[in-house]
């Protein structure tokens, strides 16, 4: 019974959550592709938006390196309130909030045993 | 009512303590979790969301599995292994599953012996091993729960750190799973070992876990 409860509450990745994360990632990449950095920044987490502005010394829409962020969403892994969305160019990482899934890191490339190296979000 | 409380005081007291400690763990655990959430730029969670989360489940399950493993191994080990001088141990010459007469089975059952002790066959075998099997079963289920909830917590942290997740099978070989498991096991085995050895030389008047205060250190299997 304990194991059954663990499985139920464990937040095993559901199709719904994966689809929601992929939808947010797609909206972000679509905004990037049409150079709408305002819309793209609105889909970043507050922490990522603030860190980008601080590190670049300008507002998020101006600082966002849109030319280095592209790709087509292929699949997603979701665990609790975190998601990793795979694209044909690498990956994005997202965090779930009440409102929706927001991008915490984008333009991420596999870095071997180390964490993914991301263009936005570290 | 008074008699019920008196006759069941030990079970009731520890039941209440367990519930109070579990509630306290939930409160403190949620506070710690939300601190980490905010540090990661993520969202804090409600009390209900926390106690139904993998974070809470894994912290509870990793403790439960080690407790029930401790009891299972202790119950099993004390059949065959002895500790001279300890009230936790049988006498050296009594090592093993003992005779039917000693266990009041077969022709040695009484009218008020439990039904499954009197009937014989597989039911008596099951009843004869019911304590160990129950402890082992709860241990295995709790350990499974720890692994299932643990892989969720681990992978959530992996993604937050921009690292790829593991499958459940891969997680069974991961350092995180074994660190959680072994840090609990070491304390359980230490507790049992301490109790077995310390009870040879130390006393607690009135406790059945202790030898009588005046009993010699070499006395084995005598309770106060």
Cα shape of chain A: globular
Query: Strand share of the residues of chain B?
Result: under 5%
Judged by helices, strands and strand pairing, the structural class of chain A is: alpha+beta
Q: Any idea what the CATH architecture of chain A is?
A: Roll
User: Within the largest sheet of chain A, what's the order of strands?
Assistant: 1-2-3-4-5
Number of strands of chain A: 5
Following the backbone from N to C, one meets helices and strands of chain B in this order, namely HHHHHHHHHH
**Main sheet attributes: strand count, strand direction, barrel closure of chain B:** none
Overview of the structural elements:
The complex is a heterodimer of chains A (122) and B (224). Chain A has 122 residues and is α+β, with helices and mostly antiparallel strands. Chain A has helices at residues 2-9, 15-33, 37-42, 46-56, 60-63, and strands at 73-79, 82-87, 90-96, 101-111, 114-120. Chain A has a 5-stranded antiparallel β-sheet with strand order 1-2-3-4-5. In chain A, strand 2 (82-87) and strand 3 form a beta hairpin. Chain B is mainly α and 224 residues long. Chain B has helices spanning 2-7, 9-39, 47-51, 54-80, 100-103, 115-118, 121-128, 130-160, 168-171, 175-201. The A-B interface holds A 1-3, 5-7, 9-12, 45-48, 77, 79-84, 93, 95-98, 104-105, 108, 115-116, 118, 121-122 and B 40-43, 52-54, 57, 61, 64, 138, 141-142, 144-146, 148-149, 151-153, 155-156, 158-165.
Structural topology:
The complex is a heterodimer of chains A (122) and B (224).
Chain A: H1 2-9, H2 15-33, H3 37-42, H4 46-56, H5 60-63, E1 73-79, E2 82-87, E3 90-96, E4 101-111, E5 114-120
Antiparallel strand pairs in A: 1-2, 2-3, 3-4, 4-5
Chain B: H1 2-7, H2 9-39, H3 47-51, H4 54-80, H5 100-103, H6 115-118, H7 121-128, H8 130-160, H9 168-171, H10 175-201
Helix pairs in contact in B: 4-8, 4-10
